[in-house]
Amino acid sequence: CPEKIWKASRRGMVTRSGMAWFTLTPVNDTNEDAKYIGWLYDQIYSRADGNRIEIIEGSTYDNVGFGATQEQAERWEQDQFGANEVATRVFGKFTHLAGVVHKSFNPKTHMLSANDFPVIEKDWPRYIGIDPHPGKGHFAVLCAVRPDETVFAYDSVHLNNVQDFAQALIEKEPMLTEPELSRHCTLVIDVSYADKGSWTNDATFENELFKAGIRATMLHSIKHPGSLLQGIQIVENFLAENRLFLHADRCKPVLHEFYRYIWGPTGKPLRQNNDYLDCLRMVLHMGANYYPLI
To answer: Is 202 left (phi over 0), alpha (psi -120 to 50) or beta?
Structure first.
């Protein structure tokens, strides 16, 4: 379906609040296909919230008597298509989603509306993952841990100026500056950029946060040759066990990265669409545990 046809059809539905249904197999056989599939993914699939936009995915195996069998699908992979395209033709996944990093993520399960999201209690410890970038801005995901060790990502931040970034963190989490409560907050900062003297008059990133009044514990992220893949697996475990939930409105940028963060040909994820997810990974990898406020 060309995008211009969708736009024309959508205008025709406005006055009567019409509904649109798309049935498709999102295969990129040609450049023209890729163009059509691209806008469908960006404008519709990636914005699914289970309310205004709902995605129903099925497998050819569900079409008993008419769809392909598992044996046929295995022959497709060996003789005609690659593994990713077979995943598209058999399970209806967008071609690039067949290689998505966090396959356990389900927006219907892990994204909670404002009405369903719990009240963040004062005694829940706060963990804030921060990915600083002198060039493209600074990213943060704010999390709180419930006594049952469930993690709730309740907000996100992206700002270019470090001073503005610090003030935004304080506005979203006032505990960061309160003497008796700031010790219940931990900042996990990407070690790759945190201590670089390229911020303001050679000050470190942590110093800029401290000058803004933030008194939370500041830690560098875990980094060793296998830490990235280890951290990704930890995020996957939290998702699979339904111990990680995100605020649907305040963490929309994180949702978009879950859909776009994909594996590269080297067996590692591509270094794109991962700024917020890096923040989340650093928090969970560091060990986001509940401990009482004393």
So the answer is: left
Contact 130, 187 (CB under 8 A): yes
Torsion over CA of 196, 199, 203 and 208, rounded to 10 degrees?
Answer: -110
What are the pLDDT digits (tens) for 60-100?
777 777 767 767 766 665 566 655 566 667 767 665 555 78
What is the spatial distance between Cα 287 and Cα 285, in angstroms, rounded to a whole number?
5
Q: Answer for the pair 95, 157: CB distance below 8 angstroms, yes or no.
A: no
Q: What does 235-277 look like in DSSP terms, one character per residue?
A: HHHHHHTT-EEEETTTTHHHHHHHHH-BB-TTSSB-SSS-HHH
- Predicted confidence (pLDDT) per residue in 217-272, tens digit: 999 898 888 999 999 999 999 999 999 999 999 999 998 888 788 887 777 888 88
In angstroms, the CA 244 to CA 53 distance is 22
Q: 0.85 exceeded by the pTM?
A: no
Residue in the structure block whose two tokens are 């080297």:
266
* pLDDT score for 197: 45
Find out whether 193 and 133 touch, Cβ atoms under 8 Å: yes
In the beta sheet, which residues pair with residue 210?
none
Backbone φ/ψ region at 50: left (φ over 0), alpha (ψ -120 to 50), beta:
left
Q: If DSSP codes are grouped into helix, strand and coil, which group holds residue 286?
A: helix
Q: How far apart are alpha carbons 73 and 93 in whole angstroms?
A: 14
The span from the CA of 132 to the CA of 230, in Å, is 21
Structure tokens at 219: 């830690």
Nearest in space to 55 (alpha carbons), one of 40, 73, 67: 40
